[in-house]
Write a structure and sequence with these properties.
alpha/beta; Cytidine Deaminase, domain 2; 8 helices; disordered N terminus
Length: about 220
């Protein structure tokens, strides 16, 4: 598998990264998302942070009520480039990108084209499909991008990854994978509990979104 040679090692221990990203999700992203889902947008949010200080630079959530392209990650990238003057805007390669949900094909492309080379996410594609009844991240990657190789069997085809998570453009990890890098066993259990608690906070957001979808709350998204 190709390795990203352009991304420097993250200077922070996994426990520091986890604490920062979980706190940011609960204190900032979830309140933004609560407002968004009430207007018909999905419950996906994102943030761009300084790699050195882990200070958040830009945070945003999905705004498909306005445009089907304004996924949380794309909205966050747009704000990063349009609201911060070039003279004071850090290089994307000096930042880390955090998405509450594993980025879809659109957002993977946006993160790559914008020059962010390290990202983390809380929920996996399978979580989005199974817990939130939003299967389109997997569907689009499988139907549009995943091409069966010559003489490739069905089992081999299904086992093949939907995208290369560690490549020359970026490296990515779920918070679940990051937890496994925490050396202390008690700390690992603590973070597993925190992730479970935080994921539980999204249950109410999902109910609001699904209720609005059933009631026909306006959204520009084709795939709801």
């Amino acid at each position: 598998m190709p390795t990203n040679t352009n991304t420097p090692p993250n200077p922070h221990p996994p426990s520091t990264l986890l604490t920062t990203l979980l706190t940011l999700t609960e204190s900032t992203i979830i309140p933004l998302t609560t407002t968004g889902v009430s207007s018909g947008s999905k419950l996906f949010g994102a943030s761009i942070l300084s790699r050195d200080t882990l200070s958040p630079i830009t945070t945003a959530t999905n705004n498909e009520a306005l445009s089907p392209l304004l996924h949380g990650e794309i909205n966050c990238i747009q704000q990063f480039f349009t609201t911060i003057p070039p003279s004071s805007r850090p290089s994307p390669s000096s930042c880390i990108f955090f998405a509450t949900h594993e980025p879809c094909s659109l957002c993977l492309s946006g993160i790559t084209w914008a020059g962010f080379n390290e990202f983390y996410y809380l929920f996996t594609y399978e979580d989005s499909r199974d817990a939130f009844n939003i299967p389109y991240d997997i569907d689009i990657l499988e139907e549009v991008f995943k091409v069966r190789g010559e003489n490739e069997g069905e089992g081999e085809f299904k086992r093949r990854g939907l995208y290369n998570k560690n490549n020359k453009f970026f490296k990515s990890k779920s918070l679940g994978e990051l937890i496994e890098e925490v050396e202390d066993g008690k700390e690992r259990e603590y973070f597993r509990g925190e992730v479970k608690r935080l994921k539980g906070l999204y249950d109410a957001l999902s109910e609001t979104y699904q209720k609005g979808k059933a009631e026909g709350v306006g959204s520009e998204s084709v795939w709801k």
